[in-house]
Amino acid sequence: MVGFAEYLGVGTRTVSKWEARGADIEPMPELQAVLDTALARADRASAERFRLLIQAGTAARAAAGRRRGTVEKSPSSPAPVAPVSPVTRAVGPGRSVRAARANQNLADAAGRVARTSVRDRTTVPGRIRPRRRPGAPSDLSPVAPVTGPIALGGAGVQGSPRGVAVHDWLTDPLVQLRAVDSVPEGGAPSVAPSLACAPPESWETSWQEARGQNATEPPGGLLAVGRSDVEAVQETVSFFSRVDQRRGGGHARTAVLQYLTSDVSAFLNGRFTDDSVRRQMFAAAGELACLAGWMSYDDAEHPTAQWAYSIAVKLAAEADDAPLAGFALRAMSRQVLDLGQPERALDLAAASVNGERYRRAVPRERALLCLGQARALAMAGDRQAATVAVKQAEAELASASASDIEPDRVFFVGEASLAHQSGCVLRDFGDLRGALEAFERAVQIRQRSKFARAHAITLGDLGDVQARLGRHDQAVVTWSQALDAMSGVRSARTRAIARRIRVMTASKPVRVEGSEELAARVEHYLAG
Length: 528
Hints:
Layout: H1 4-8, H2 29-40, H3 44-73, H4 97-100, H5 106-115, H6 155-158, H7 173-178, H8 205-214, E1 224-225, H9 227-247, H10 253-268, E2 271-272, H11 275-298, H12 302-318, H13 322-338, H14 342-352, H15 356-359, H16 363-379, H17 383-399, H18 415-429, H19 432-445, H20 452-468, H21 472-485, H22 492-506, H23 515-527
Parallel strand pairs: 1-2
Helix pairs in contact: 2-3, 3-10, 9-10, 9-11, 10-11, 11-12, 11-13, 12-13, 13-14, 13-16, 14-16, 16-17, 16-18, 17-18, 18-19, 18-20, 19-20, 20-21, 20-22, 21-23, 22-23
């Protein structure tokens, strides 16, 4: 694969055999397939477990639909807001991020970026001199060897930004999981300030102490939890992670949340055979919570995603799994970035690579953390630091070995994801030709059936760049392929791609052969 510095010039559907009562919800074929397999193997216990999980998920989804219907009918409720694209994030009618930076707020915005920079830019005309961290190198060239993650300054690494409440970080995660109706389903795509920041210092102390003071044994005693229970949770996380990659967060998301707040919550409050099992269970639950957050983010349920991500970080702290905490913080940064808060995204990205979260991670996970940091830096306008972060991701991924003992959560990280994220960084800098090459590379090497959603999003991004370069015929073909890949995918992000295609095909330059048919396909997809 061509290096990032060179870019810069420096399944068959299974028919359901059961019917969800009281819910007009389509069956979940992926879950039904597991149920069928269990039945074929005469594994009655597994079959019953997944049957109940399916029923719980569809019931929860139906309830969420009724709640949404109530909100939509209420005249006092705000109009739903679509997720903001990181490509063309609007700051006002007809105004782009680049246009906004030209107005009177430019100095303030540049000052915030400068405080997070890793390079002294006094020699660059028109740039603001940043505050240097003690011991920081005076220059990190994009062609110089990189030996570690970019360490960003700012309150986000050791504490929360000024003026931001931190009370949600101080809430016991076990209390959050047990609370009735604790999952904040529905609402506008926004992020509460109390969680759109890195955890403050000693953030886990208060809720751990409070738990020790208020601990009471529930009626009937504590649930006995052993290694087999840990393995059951891990297998469930692995299964749903792959469903998410193929089908999108809209499939089985409510089932995952139901499993987290019921069965897994009971395990976390149980009686463990030893401390090792306890830590393993908290780590498995943390991965499940992070998956629930990612699926909710992908389904545009942003308050739910925020709630789940914060729980994942806390459970990782209980498990003494620093890399898992970094993984969850990186996902939080991505969500906040897509919702138009680059400064908070920088804080969270910096926290994700802070200390043990980066040092104890395997190379593949380190690459993912560096890419998350690069995306935040690119949207903040720091080209130099973002370049260094992508180069570091390339180096980390190149050092990954088949002999590495890797957590299952990084199974999707590879050359294709590196190429796609590199293309996004280049696109955000305005290097469309470099982005075009990176997106084409990602499309060529991605395992399309295994990662259908990512493939569809990459094709959508590639078509955007082709259209912006004036290659309208190619863009129409690429977008048609993107719609093919979206078949069977339930994702707010793929729907956002479809809406972008609708806008682009409506413009006069893109009205070429096949564009009308493409526009009709877009409407059919969005109506589904």
